[in-house]
Amino acid sequence: MTLLNTTHERGARDDQVVVASVPSGHVYVRHLAPENGPGPLRLPDPDPGEPTRAASQQWWPPVMLDPAWAAAADFDLFHLQFGFDACSPERLADLVGTLRGRGKPFVFTVHDLRNPHHPTRALHDEQLDVLVPAADALVTLTDGAADEIRRRWGREAIVLPHPHVVDLRTMAVAQDARARRRSWGFRVGVHVKSLRASMDPLAVLPTLVETVGALPGAVLQVDAHRDVLDPDGARHDGELAAYLRRGEAAGDLELRVHDYFSDTDLWNYLGSLDVSVLPYRFGTHSGWLEACRDLGTTVVAPTCGYFADQGPVLSYVLDEQRYDADSLADAVRLAHDERPRLGASIDLRRHQRASVARAHDLLYDTLLRTSRGGR
Questions:
Q1: In this structure, are residues 313 and 302 in contact, taking their beta carbons and an 8 Å threshold?
Q2: Rg (alpha carbons) of the chain, rounded to whole number
Q3: Which of 151, 272, 334, 343 has its CA at a distance of 20 to 30 angstroms from the CA of residue 212?
Q4: At residue 231, does pLDDT exceed 80?
Q5: What is the mean pLDDT of the chain?
């Protein structure tokens, strides 16, 4: 692997903290910076040398996770968010050993306590067993996740909420359009995307077909990527494809098959829904949920993970052991009858972002003062 971007220009502010952020280009990380103001300098994601990937995916696989990169690069502090899915525990141990040997503080934000891309939890647990004890500071998104970290590793994590996902200007336009909407229709969406390991749409779809079909003015919309629905797709699921095609032919659902949405298309899609149902059997936190909150779309979320800790949602029982169809039907009927307003206001998101940015600045400053002997 070619090691790129091992140096940087600090610019006019010689005292600016330089962070090796894994990744730095992801929207979550971008919105850790203040809305207005410089904040820390997060090094750009080194190009992994795969030019066929979209620009938004250029951080994958993360070059910064290579211990050789960490040994040579010029930065003050290393902050791991995510992207280590395929790393062996041994490689991660080498990475944190390299950071320790250089005296570089290591911050780890625990987004996932159960990896949604791994069919079993064994590898992720081993990875966390390396990263969590080694971190100089831990951050997570919810009180529930912090409690689990405390139980499993005896470590305290700083709880900082997920900042907005949708840009504030788009939020304003979308929320204004929703407020002016004068339709009696009711659109429930399920997006199976590329059917990552945590998803179990066939568990929830029969309930949704029956429940939505009995509600006046309601439509069930199911979106899927071509790689799942097309017979020659890389992640083709014949059983799911057949079910959806039958439902479409019977008029039970609207099926929309397409490639990955651009950000604009995704915001338009989510903004068109009254409800987005998350069909997850396991997981921890959700950026999709946060985007829905930004756009005023009600989220119906499973009881696995800590989705309900992120913000107001309607919950139903689904995890790796249980599924309660009645709880899902009740949540959808409640959303139809009451049309709850569970979104996040722009003022809340602006305040939240400023608070999260300040908290990161304080954390970085504290760790760097400690690592430099209090100077």
A1: no
A2: 22
A3: 343
A4: yes
A5: 93
Q: What gap in Å lies between CA 233 and CA 266, rounded to an integer?
A: 21
pLDDT in tens, 260-315: 999 999 999 999 999 999 999 999 999 999 999 999 999 999 999 999 999 999 99
Domain 18-163+351-371, CATH 1.10.3470 — does that match?
A: no
Give dist(CA 230, CA 172) in Å, integer: 36
- Assigned token pair, 27: 């929207």
Domains 18-163+351-371 and 168-343 share a fold: yes
In the block, which residue shows the tokens 């040579």?
72
Pairing, β 137-140 against β 157-159: parallel
Listed residue (228, 237, 346, 223) closest to 277, CA to CA:
223
Supply the CATH classification number for the domain 168-343.
Answer: 3.40.50.2000
b/e per residue, 3-35, with b = 16+ CB within 10 A?
Answer: eebbeeeeeeeeeebbbbbbbbbbbbbebbbbe
Cβ atoms < 10 Å from Cβ of 119: 11
**Strand partners of residue 223:** 191, 256
How far is the C-alpha of 115 from the C-alpha of 197, rounded, in Å? 9
Structure token pair of residue 281? 């059997």
